[in-house]
Amino acid sequence: MTSSQCIHDDACPVESSGVIVAWLCPDCDTQLGADFGKELQRRRDDAAFRAACTHTDVYDVTTHGDTRGRGVCTRCGQDMRETPAGGWEPT
Q1: Tell me, what's the pLDDT at 21?
Q2: How far apart are CA 64 and CA 72, in angstroms?
Q3: CA neighbor of 25 nearest in space, from 44, 46, 4
């Protein structure tokens, strides 16, 4: 994927001496500015962004005692629950 096609949802902070100095997108190998974290957080907080997310990357956070699987979408932060068919749906 080229950087012009990527929205950098999986970007990771790059720290130096405990300070975020840049962000690196592992999907397209693009280095982004230190302030990109604000944009990423804005996207995750934005209801329209969350509503448009397909929730294809869900991290399972199910713990012992949960009656249903629980997850979190890694792209938008939406809380998810496991469906009877084994998929995920927003809570």
Answers
A1: 95
A2: 17
A3: 4
Tokens 């929730």 belong to which residue? Answer: 55
Q: Kindly tell me if the per-residue pLDDT of 16 is higher than 90.
A: yes
- Report, in this order, helix, strand and coil percent for the chain, each rounded to 5: 20, 30, 50
Exposure on the CB side of residue 54, measured as CA atoms within 13 A: 3
- What is the C-alpha to C-alpha distance for residues 68 and 76, in angstroms, rounded to an integer? 21
Task: Say how far apart CA 79 and CA 52 lie, in whole Å.
Answer: 15
- What length does the chain have? 91
CA distance 2 to 76: 21
The CA distances from residue 64 to 15, 60, 69, 70, 88, in Å, are 34, 12, 10, 11, 18
User: What would the pLDDT profile of 37-77 be if each residue is shown by its tens digit?
Assistant: 888 888 777 777 888 889 988 988 888 888 889 998 888 88
